[in-house]
Amino acid sequence: MIEGSAAEIADAVNARRVSALELTNALAARIDERDGAVGAYLARTTELAREHAARVDARVAAGERLPLAGVGLAIKDNMCVAGTPTTCASKILADWVAPYTATAVARLLEAGAIPLGKTNLDEFAMGSSCENSALGRTANPWDLGRVPGGSSGGSAAAVAAGEATVALGSDTGGSIREPAAFCGVVGFKPTYGRVSRYGLIAFASSLDQIGPISRSVADSALLYDVMAGHDPMDATTVERPVEAAAPALRDDLRGVRIGIVKEFGLAELGAEVRAVYERAYDDLVKLGAELVEVTLPTAEYGVATYYLIAPAECSSNLARFDGMRYGLRVERPDVGATYEATRAAGFGDEVKRRILIGTYALSSGYYDAYYVRAQKARTLIAADFARAFASCDAIACPAAATPAFAFAAKTDPVSMYLMDYYTIPMSLAGLPSLSVPCGYVTTPGAHALPLGLELSAPLFAERALLGIAHAYEGATRHAFARSIPDLPRAAALR
Ligand code: GLN
């Protein structure tokens, strides 16, 4: 049963064929068995999970029907859950316990989801491999010698390894979609402003968005329907009715126009990777879609633009970690020295690099040359998408140029930054965008490694986007062709 989809599990619990508590215990046993090798979780919340499960069982017994009854949820550890440690995988918050619960999490729990634990990430969600975590190492369940992707690597690995039915990630420039692609699961970033970020510890506030990671598009739609919508606690959420996506999932693509981006030609990809994407585009046509070429001439500036805006915002957001109000404090004789010593000891190298870049880009004399220009470039990128969507309903492209890479394979920061080449432009434009499994490549060690197809849609077109992804997934079945239970063998190879 714990292999089932969120919808199947909720149905079974609502019909009282199985209890939420039994399922919670079964998932806890699964985590015991696998997480030693995978390392998806930084902290488990097993007692809290059992309390929630008992409450769900009581509500169901009293006649309630809950959309996520008994569904095991893994939560990225940059989201607050009251009474549990919330670390952002940083030494500076290693001992901090959240005093309240993030709205997105609270909505899922209220709908019957069970909080299994907090998952690993790149420190403060800065990275594309999960290797920037200061508190743990997460392996890709498909090949334990490879990274799970980042920054939501723990959440993607947990779902891929069957250690959670669904998970929450956050995506600033690709952090849901890239790890989902690397781990062979679905990862969905809704439109900026669709899901409350209250209780998500901020990295880059104009980009951060919470979204689901799951084994199927239908499960992501289910979570989205529960989470989306205005929240008085987050002024960036939009007061606009949410059209439920789950009931609109479709099985074909007749009448759908899919844009293929001229500038994202497949020629530069490795031969095996290219073949997977060529087949994915063919599959879209077989389902009835019409492919149209679209052009995003400024998309190539996405990475450069993002690496000014995101660090600028993070330099401001992370100023609060100074040892005074919460988190680590390294005591020194005066307050300035205490700030310095605390931040020097608490932040890792990548976080420090971003704070330095961002502070520089915002400093007087450089503000116009860097930050303002980046904002102008961002506007041009958004305008490119708006033009492209005049001739198509969604855009298809690779989620990443390669499958998951080996630990320590990317030593310079820029090669890591480039991993988000295909995901950053959509983030800058605020668009809903997802990655759905689209096939596999094989590696010398004979591991199959998954690849993801990225589908993106106009602002607030979540319902259409999830419908298209569902048709693609259902017709190709890549998402269900998993061989994850090979894990013990993969573990032996390590
Ligand atoms: N990899 C990108 C970065 O390091 C995006 C991370 C994210 O989306 N949180 O900033």
Quick structural gist:
The chain has 494 residues and is α/β, with parallel strands linked by helices. The protein contains 16 helices and 11 strands. It has a single domain (6-258, 389-481), classed as Amidase signature (AS) enzymes (Alpha-Beta Complex), CATH 3.90.1300.
CATH superfamily: Amidase signature (AS) domain
Level-2 CATH architecture? Alpha-Beta Complex
CATH class descriptor: Alpha Beta
> How many DSSP helices?
16
Detailed description of the structure:
The chain is of the alpha/beta class and 494 residues long. The chain has a single domain, classed as Alpha-Beta Complex (Amidase signature (AS) enzymes). It is 39% helix and 13% strand. It is built from 16 helices and eleven strands. Strands 1-3-2-4-6-5-10-11-9-7-8 form an eleven-stranded mixed sheet, with helices on both faces. Strand 10 (433-442) and strand 11 form a beta hairpin. Helix 7 (217-227) runs antiparallel to helix 15 (462-476). Residues 488-494 have low confidence and may be disordered. Glutamine (GLN) binds next to loops.
